[in-house]
Amino acid sequence: MAHPAAAPSLWAVVGATGTGKSELSLDLAEAFAARGEAAEIVNADAMQLYRGMDIGTAKLPVHERRGIPHHLLDVLEVSEDAAVAAYQAAAREAISGILSRGAHAILVGGSGLYVSSVLFDFSFPPRDERRRGELEAELAERGPGPLFARLRELDPATAARIDARNGRRIVRALEVLAQGARTHGAALPEQPRAWRPARIVGLHEERATLVQRLDARVERMWEQGLPAEVDALRAAGLERGTTARRAIGYAQALAQREGELTEAEAIAQTQALTRRYARRQVSWFRRYEAVRWMPAGGADAASLVAAGSSGGG
Fold first, then answer.
1. What is the torsion angle, in degrees rounded to the nearest 10, for the CA atoms of residue 181, residue 183, residue 186 and residue 187?
2. Mean pLDDT on 77-96
3. Does the pLDDT at position 61 exceed 80?
4. Residue 175's pLDDT is what?
5. Is the model more confident about 167 or about 32?
6. Which one of 11, 32, 121, 193 is at 20 to 30 Å from 288 when CA atoms are compared?
7. CA 218 to mean position of chain CA atoms
8. Nearest CA-CA partner of 46 in 109, 127, 102, 92
9. Cα 142-146-152 angle, rounded to 5 deg
10. Cβ neighbours of 298 (radius 10 Å)
11. What is 234-255 written as a DSSP string?
């Protein structure tokens, strides 16, 4: 049955890790194709930006992408730092390009701040290279503790969102405050304004089921060779960067290779951190108002596309 062509639109698929977001994004693109409409996918997983970080990020291999164009995968070296402000500009440029070609854009990923930076009216303070250099020197000399204590005193709300061991984020927050801002502000606004209209689909799973799935997935990562992948990434400069080396799973596999953790300890620690990360993702995306929540594995892409094309929710 022929369908009238719908105007190109922006979609987002969000939810916790392990809920099947990548699969649904592919199904949505194929559902559009069945209607004679093109669609392209834009990655919103911060760690999938990195070349070579495949097993630990559950990145879809090229041969499993069903011939659908993907954007913002494998665009950074592991020695480079991922920055949400740079990602925002690149993702919005990719989406605008897709829409201008008459195709639908599907943003997919679980990195809450990255997704929000695209969907909502986020702005990021400028850089102050001199001040950041001073803070980084202090970090190298004294560690993150004193800097975090200073941040907690100056901006308790931001400090509450930042891991006290994450020196890079602490430095950035203090750099922003030093420029006269009241707060770092990198959080979803209370009443966010949309960058452009978007249909947001959220995938959810019962906690007990999701925990079992995530624990099994971590075990598979080691079976598939995550420590060997880390060996290759070390040769590519993994330890020179400050973002990629801290990724869940990679940090633990690196510690295993350095003799700091046994394999069993590395797996158990990765499982615990993954479960905690999934909880944070659920909390983040639950704040979105205009989400159509669907059970993981139970979303019918064709129905979603038909409802969206007809103006349904």
1. -140
2. 95
3. yes
4. 86
5. 32
6. 32
7. 18
8. 109
9. 155
10. 10
11. HHTTGGG-SSGGGSTTHHHHHH
- Residue 85: closest CA among 180, 202, 175: 175
- Torsion angle in degrees (nearest 10) through CA of 244, 245, 249, 255: 170
The strand pairing partners of 42, in sequence order, are 71, 107
Residue 164's SS3 state is: coil
Pick from 2, 9, 57, 65: which is nearest to 34 by CA? 2
pTM metric for this prediction: 0.84
User: What is the pLDDT, as a whole number, of residue 166?
Assistant: 84
- H helices of the chain, where? 21-34, 84-100, 112-119, 129-142, 144-154, 156-161, 167-178, 207-223, 226-235, 250-257, 263-286, 301-309
Say how far apart CA 305 and CA 70 lie, in whole Å: 19
Question: How many residues are present in the chain?
Answer: 313
Please enumerate in sequence order all residues whose Cβ is within 8 A of that of 52, keeping only pairs 6 or more positions apart, or say none.
74, 78, 229, 232, 233, 236
> How far is it, in rounded angstroms, from Cα 64 to Cα 103?
21
With b for 16 or more beta-carbon neighbours within 10 A and e for fewer, the 91-108 pattern comes to: bbebbeebbeeebbbbbb
3 state DSSP class of 199 = strand
Cβ(32)–Cβ(38) below 8 Å: yes
Q: 266 with 255: CB under 8 angstroms?
A: yes
Task: List residues bridging with 105 in a β-sheet.
Answer: 10, 40
Give the chain's radius of gyration (CA, Å).
20
Q: How far is C-alpha 189 from the geometric centre of its chain's CA atoms?
A: 18
Evaluated on CA atoms 208, 212, 217, 222, the torsion sign reads: positive
pLDDT of residue 80 exceeding 70: yes
Pairwise CA distance, residues 78 & 93, whole Å: 23
pLDDT digits 0-9 by tens, 35-54:
999 999 999 999 999 999 99
